[in-house]
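Typical record is below.
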Amino acid sequence: MPSSCCSTTVTTTYAVSGMTCGHCKATLTKVIGELDGVTGVDVDLDTGRVTVTSAAEPDDTMIAEVVDEAGYELTGRA
């Protein structure tokens, strides 16, 4: 069977509290986007959701850690 190594992406949505403005959005996009394997980040301030697109299943603990270090709280997968 041929390997489809790099063509598969995983999209995961998280609930994050404490986001209120464009600065929050920019900060989270930057810190999550710097994680290994992350290929996209979409922050929705209205719903309090952050959608992460990655090459493989994301490390929830690592994402929670960078979100916390940025001053927000990841409350779980949405």
